[in-house]
# Entry
Amino acid sequence: MKQPLRILSVIDIPWNSGLAAYAFDQALALRGGGHSVIFACPEGSAAMAFAGREGFKSFPIPDRKDFLRLPPALLRLRAAARVEKIDAVCAHTGRAQTLGFLLGLPLLRVKADAKKPSAGFTFSSVKKTIAASGYIKKLFVEAGLDAAQVTVVPQGIKPPPASSRAPQVPYKIGLLGRLDPVKGHACFLKAAEELLRSGTRAEFHLAGYEANIKYADLLKLAEELDIAASVVFHGKVDGPFKFMAACDIGVIASLGSEAVSRAALEWLASGRPLVSTSAGSLPEYVDQDWLVPPGDHLALAAKLSALLADPARIITLGEENRVRAAKDFSREAFAAATCAVFENAVLSRSPVPDKNSFASPDPRPPTPGS
# Structure
């Protein structure tokens, strides 16, 4: 192993999210590689709770909306970085990148969300950018960042114990995701109506916490489509794998977003076939044969119908997905790639990108970006 690093991981959002989950897995991977990670995060945030639970040291910073407390927090953080002998800053948001820039330490930018990056000049101090998917790398390149500056490191997963299930009628088709319009629940229910109307014997299971949609709204739509008797609402579930193991087929019906897709990774690891839209990074997880255009419920119904017509294919495709999850998205591969990026960026003495790293640098003072 190369020289151990002391890394300050800055994440200024209070909630748990895909971005936060990536930051947490990254910290565990770095620690497993012999490096030390210290969190800078808001009091009471999911990141601070994670740090306390997993034994990482943490320092409080204002959350992303509290600009007035930023200057004194920056001074405290600068002092803490000296005391802790921090080697590099890892920024998970645009404002965290600004903080890292102002700290004057080697800076790595990590992005695991769908917000479009902006060409701010603080990127002049970024030694390496980590994108959680090829889709995110594309967003950076479109914003003007040199593709050579961006390394894709997909999140890893530990597959659950194998769970065999012989598909049988009524087939169980599941969608797991927060209740939000972007997740395409309405499209899923319309596809269900199409399948049931054609004589398919199936149940349609939905699970996830309420966000911008309520289960009452989905029940009303199911009643309007006259399919309520074949739709099962599970609410928020304790972990994904028990729900997925009870399904024959998984569906992701997202209309957009999906910069990374933890749900897709979980369906693969569960050993279940997955039919998905092509939104965001989903084509990086799902074979082209099982992708449909976002919002096209007829195409979604057609793909599901083709799969249900061949129960043996349901089993073999699920097994293929589980093998792919173990091969292409292992925790070991994620940890090795993560450590390599940090070690090469901080220890290689490679030059910091010049001010022309972005095609159109922003001449204004640093402001929070993406």
Q: What stands out?
A: Residues 350-370 have pLDDT under 50 and may be disordered.
